[in-house]
Structures are given as C-alpha cells and as structure tokens.
C-alpha cells in the first residue's frame, strides 16, 4: 500500500495556490456591539467543518488531486448512485423489519468507490474536452495536476477495492454486479455518438436497484426490480438533463451531445413525462411487493418535489440548474423513508388480519 501511494504521489504537482475562500471569510465585517468578543485575527485557525469539500482541502497536498478526481468534494453524485441501492435493500426487507444496516453500509462504500472509478474513467476519456469548458478546466487531469498514468493506477486501486466489496455478496450478485462494468466504462463515450447519454447513465447509475434486492434475497424478483430499475432510469433522465443544461453552450462549441441539446425549449415537457413514468413505475413496484400507505405517501411527496423542480426550473441559468440537480438527493431520501415506514406498517396490517382468525 505504501508503494502504491508513493507511485500515485510521485511527480504530482501541488495544487493551484489560489483556492476558494471559506464562506466565513466572505461575510462582510460589521461593527460589533459592546461586550462582544472581536472577530478572530487573520491567520487564526479555521473553524472546524465536516463538509466533503473541507475534508478534501484538509487532506495532504499530494493526495488532494486524487480525491478531487474521484469527486469526493462533490458528494451529490455519490448519493444519486447510492440511493437506488437503498430503495432495493429496503423493499427486500422482511415485513415489519428495518433494512439490513450491514448491507446498507457495504453498498455505501461500494457507491463511493464506483462513483470515484466512474469519474476517473470519465475524466480520462474527456481530458481534452474538459480543458475547453470553464466549469471542468480545473479538474485534475485537464489541469495537469496528475498524469494519465497516475490516474490509471488510481483507477486500478479503486476497482480492486470495489471488487473486494462485491465479493462480500452472494454469487448471483457478484455476477450481476460485474455485468455493470461495461456500462461504467462505455458511458463517457456516449456523449460523442448520441444525444441520449443520460439514458446510458441511467442504466448505469441505477444498477443498484437490481443488485440491492439480489444481495438480500439471493436473486432478483423481476416483478419488483424491473419497475424499480425503470423508475430510477427515468429519474436519472430528469436530474441529468437538468445538469446538462449547465454546459449546453460549451457542448455546442466542442461537439458534445446531450438530452439538453435534444430537448431544447421542450425540456420541461420531456421532464414531466419522465417524472410521470417514474411515479407509475414506483407504484407498480410497490404493489408487487405489497407496500402500504407510508410508501405511497412518499411516492406522492416525490411527485410534488419533482413537479416543483420542473415548474421553477430556469434552463438558462446554470446556478439554478445545479441547485435543482443537487436537490434530487431529497427525492431519493423521501422515497427511502417511505419504503422503510411502509415496510414497518406491514407488521400492523398482519396483526389486524390475524386477530379475527384467532377469535374464530
């Protein structure tokens, strides 16, 4: 392990000296009332922060390019990869029981590793494109902070650790999980050949909707897993189309395709259709695994959240697109909460059914 770290760090230039200031440093200075302590002088220790971005900044300098390469400072994508896994694990739990916390933790580690591996592959394919886009020009490969060879070694380490996680599952799940690797590798190429790379991303990012169930049950119950998987794909088409509108001007210049460029001013109509398909698929999955009132309440809340996203979206403002994209973590958490509460509700329903039988 020490040799691997030495190889990764060797020759990696230091990060750019200019860094974004902390939010606390950007606040305006106002007159302090009497008896209040004056603000800390310049050069005093920064206040503790546990945000992902601050943790990356606090890491040793030679490691920071690798942490940024795997987007550890931007955890929104990791959440969007992880949440479909939690849905599937939650739906597979026994009636009246909480989800398997060991499996949730295992999939959490896997999501961090596989999202990092996917970002590394993406940046290796796109390093020349990234140099031409303002938002991506500072990525480690595009900026020259690390070499292609170093990123390849780092990718091998991430995939090796992800394989260790996968080997903790049953044989069915190992084969099923390995089958997704082709999607992970080829997705970054899709923006060169089709206006629907977001669809391929959806097929990739929601594989956990299949894998979570099989990890608990030993195989997939397709009447539940396929509607859940389809719902996740539709969800990805919603949030990643919104995300793609951030870069549409640059994409036109460099010749990259996306659903944002395909839909143009009809984007909200398409997003509404995808959202409706997602909600219907979630209802089908819920009916096929006998979900209860809290689940359908959560599905309704998800629908309301998506409707608000789409109605208030301004596709011509990149900052608004990012805000709407990042808010989709709330969508996933709402649904997971509904799944857990709906599964606990099943215990109450079963008692209500058993009592009349005992009184006969």
UniProtKB/TrEMBL annotation:
Q: What is its main location?
A: membrane
* The UniProt record lists the keyword Cytoplasm: no
Q: Which reaction does it catalyse?
A: an all-trans-polyprenyl diphosphate + 4-hydroxybenzoate = a 4-hydroxy-3-(all-trans-polyprenyl)benzoate + diphosphate; all-trans-decaprenyl diphosphate + 4-hydroxybenzoate = 4-hydroxy-3-(all-trans-decaprenyl)benzoate + diphosphate; all-trans-nonaprenyl diphosphate + 4-hydroxybenzoate = 4-hydroxy-3-(all-trans-nonaprenyl)benzoate + diphosphate
Identify this protein by name: 4-hydroxybenzoate polyprenyltransferase, mitochondrial
**Which keywords has UniProt assigned to this entry?**
Isoprene biosynthesis, Membrane, Mitochondrion, Mitochondrion inner membrane, Signal, Transferase, Transmembrane, Transmembrane helix, Ubiquinone biosynthesis
Which function does this protein serve?
A: Catalyzes the prenylation of para-hydroxybenzoate (PHB) with an all-trans polyprenyl group. Mediates the second step in the final reaction sequence of coenzyme Q (CoQ) biosynthesis, which is the condensation of the polyisoprenoid side chain with PHB, generating the first membrane-bound Q intermediate.
Cofactor(s) this protein cannot do without: Mg(2+)
Q: Name one Pfam family in it.
A: UbiA
Query: What is its membrane topology?
Result: Multi-pass membrane protein
Q: Which organism is it from?
A: Calidris pygmaea
What pathway does this protein act in? Answer: Cofactor biosynthesis; ubiquinone biosynthesis
Where it sits in the cell: the answer is:
Membrane; Mitochondrion inner membrane
Task: Provide GO CC annotations from the record.
Answer: mitochondrial inner membrane
Q: Please name the GO terms that the record assigns under molecular function.
A: 4-hydroxybenzoate polyprenyltransferase activity
Entry's PANTHER family? Answer: 4-HYDROXYBENZOATE POLYPRENYLTRANSFERASE, MITOCHONDRIAL, PRENYLTRANSFERASES
Is Magnesium included in the keywords of this UniProt record?
A: no
User: TM spans, by residue?
Assistant: 159-187, 199-216, 222-239
Instruction: Quote the EC number.
Output: 2.5.1.39
Q: Which family does it belong to?
A: Belongs to the UbiA prenyltransferase family.
Signal peptide feature range:
1-17
Query: Which superkingdom is the protein from?
Result: Eukaryota
Q: Name one GO biological process term.
A: isoprenoid biosynthetic process
For this protein, the record's PROSITE patterns field holds: UBIA
């Amino acid at each position: 392990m020490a040799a691997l770290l030495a190889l990764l760090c060797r020759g990696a230039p230091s990060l750019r000296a200019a860094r974004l200031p902390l939010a606390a440093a950007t606040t305006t200075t106002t007159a302090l009332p009497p008896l209040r302590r004056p603000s800390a002088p310049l050069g005093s220790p920064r206040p503790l922060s546990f945000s992902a971005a601050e943790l990356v900044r606090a890491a040793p300098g030679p490691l920071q390019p690798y942490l940024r390469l795997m987007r550890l400072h931007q955890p929104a994508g990791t959440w969007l990869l992880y949440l479909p896994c939690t849905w599937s694990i939650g739906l597979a739990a026994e009636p009246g029981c909480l989800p398997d916390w060991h499996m949730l933790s295992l999939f959490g580690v896997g999501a961090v590793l596989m999202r990092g591996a996917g970002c590394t592959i993406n940046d290796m394919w796109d390093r020349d494109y990234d140099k031409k886009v303002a938002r991506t020009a500072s990525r480690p490969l595009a900026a020259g902070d690390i070499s292609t060879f170093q990123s390849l070694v780092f990718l091998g380490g991430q995939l090796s650790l992800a394989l260790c996680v996968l080997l903790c599952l049953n044989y069915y799940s190992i084969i099923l999980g390995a089958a997704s690797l082709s999607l992970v590798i080829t997705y970054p190429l899709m923006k060169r050949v089709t206006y629907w790379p977001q669809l391929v991303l959806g097929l990739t990012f929601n594989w956990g909707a299949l894998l979570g169930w099989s990890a608990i049950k030993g195989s997939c119950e397709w009447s539940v897993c396929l509607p859940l998987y389809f719902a996740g794909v539709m969800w990805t088409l919603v949030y990643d189309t919104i995300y793609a509108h951030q870069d549409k001007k640059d994409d036109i210049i460099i010749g990259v395709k996306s659903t944002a460029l395909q839909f143009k001013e009809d984007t909200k109509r398409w997003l509404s259709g995808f959202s409706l398909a997602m909600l219907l698929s979630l209802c089908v999955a819920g009916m096929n695994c006998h979900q209860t009132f809290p689940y359908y309440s959560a599905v309704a809340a998800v629908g309301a959240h998506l409707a608000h996203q789409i109605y208030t979206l301004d596709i011509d403002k990149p900052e608004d697109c990012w805000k709407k994209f990042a808010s989709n973590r709330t969508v996933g958490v709402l649904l997971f909460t509904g799944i857990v509460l709906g599964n606990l509700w099943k215990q109450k329903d079963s008692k209500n059914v058993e009592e009349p039988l005992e009184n006969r």
